[in-house]
Amino acid sequence: MPVVLKVGCLASGALGLLQIVALIYPVVSPGIDGVALTPPCLAAVMGLIHLAVAWAIFSRVAWVIPVIIFLPFIQYGVLYLENGIPPQNSLYMNLLFAGLWALFFCAYLFGFKAYRYFRVSQNA
C-alpha cells in the first residue's frame, strides 16, 4: 500500500471510530472550525462514511477514488446541512482547502500512478 494511502486509511478509520464513539461520549466529537456535528444521525453518517473509506482503501476497492478526492466537500456539506453556510471568509477558506485536497489527491493518484494500487485487486 502506498504511504499516502496508508496514512489516509488510518486517518479515515480513526476519524470514523472517533465519530461513532462521539455518539456515546460527545466530548470526543471531531469538528471543523470548532464546530462539531451534534445530531446523532449526521454524526453516524459521517462516521460510517469514514469507516467505509478506510475499509475500501484497505480492500483496494476502486470506487473509493472519487470519494477520497471529494471527501472534504462531503464533510463540509454535512456540516453545513446542520449549521448553515458559514461566513464568507470561512466558506472561502473551506473551499480553498477542499480544492487543494482534491488537487493533491488527483496529482498523487493519477500523476504518480497510485491508482494502480486499486486495480491490482480486480485482477486477483
Distance separating the two termini: 15 Å
Largest sheet features: 2 strands, antiparallel
Radius of gyration: 15 Å
Residues in helix, %: over 70%
Tally the beta strands: 2
- What's the arrangement of strands in the largest beta sheet? 1-2
What's the SSE blueprint?
Layout (H helix, E strand, L loop, with lengths): L2 H19 L9 E2 L2 E2 L3 H20 L4 H20 L4 H24 L4 H8 L1
Antiparallel strand pairs: 1-2
Helix pairs in contact: 1-2, 2-3, 3-4
What does this protein look like?
The protein is mainly alpha-helical. Helix content is 73%, strand content 3%. It contains five helices and two strands. Strands 1-2 form a two-stranded antiparallel sheet. The radius of gyration is 15 Å and the shape is globular. The model has no long low-confidence stretch (mean pLDDT 87).
Keywords, please?
124 residues; 73% helix; mainly alpha; globular
What does this entry show, briefly?
With about 120 residues, this protein is mainly alpha-helical. The protein has helices spanning about 5-20, 40-60, 65-85, 90-110, 115-124; strands at about 30, 35. Strand 1 and strand 2 (about 35) form a beta hairpin.
